[in-house]
Amino acid sequence: MSKQKLKIKPTPRDHQPDPVIRGDKISGERYYSKNFMEKEWDCMWTKVWQIAGWASEIPNSDDFFVYKIRKEEILVVRQKDNSIKAFYNVCPHRGNILVHVENGSLDTFKCTYHGWVYDTQGILRNLQDPEDFDGGNPCGKIKLKEVQCKTALGFVWINLDDNPQEFEEALSPLLDHLEPYQPERFIRVLNLTCEVNCNWKIIHDNFNESYHLPTLHPELSVHIENNYKFSQFDMYENGHNRMLMPGHKPALGNESPNDVQFPLSEALKAWDLNPDDFSGKAQETRTAIQKQKRKLAKEKGFWHYEFLTDEQLTDYYFYNCFPNYDITMTPDGIQVQRPQPHPTDPEKCFFEHWWFVPKMERLS
To answer: Is this prediction's pTM over 0.85?
Structure first.
């Protein structure tokens, strides 16, 4: 499908002027205080747009998954008209958890306490002794509490606020910047979660800078330019920020900046380029791979390359997003890293790591 038919605008590389920063001091208690943890819940988590899950993993009507954020559970359900709705995973009768599994496919949801039955639109359809209720049979009148829900970039987003910030405003400029990659046509191939003994913000802080790369990840310098002087950093008013980092070439600060080493050698071979041709001139590999990808993309089945700029064919477009997720856009995959707050302990969190690859029409 051509750019003209999809009307996709290229991801801009223009530098965003730095916004005015208030300069608030960040106290240590924010990372261990239960009182501050509750303030975050009241003032942030219940008011922000959050990624609940991946839309393509509930492809059919009646498919569902349950998203958990602290002590709340949200039931996300694919509707008969292919739209997606989200509800608190709670029976409004006596507050019992409604669905006790992480995902599945059901055309009704039956409460395991008193047997009340709801359809996928959240409407009560059946219950015991309907004639014995004041006001008559409650079927069709009682509904699950619905949650604000949107679908974009392949993700399902929810917001616990009844009157949330406009979705497009909250997700700017992500919706426009990520559109050329068409992540909704990607497949999630990695979905890992682990419990970590630290506050969720410590992990998010880590991904908010690349200063640690030369010390913690020196191996990356053989195929990524990790010096901040060659990266672009953009900050946005709504809390998101972006880093553009050149890839597919050695860092100039590497011990051997002109030598081709693994895995750069394999990247060259993958695009029918001979690593020996770049002996002593490895700084040229980035441009060479860009040109070769332009030439061979369709032949090798990489349908999405035509929507990307030359820089996007080799570089890393990293988005550190408010409040707690990071999206790394690469030419051949998308990485999402997200620390979620622990239900009760501010000194613990759940770290999620996802990887997505484009759905290929064929293998080259």
So the answer is: yes
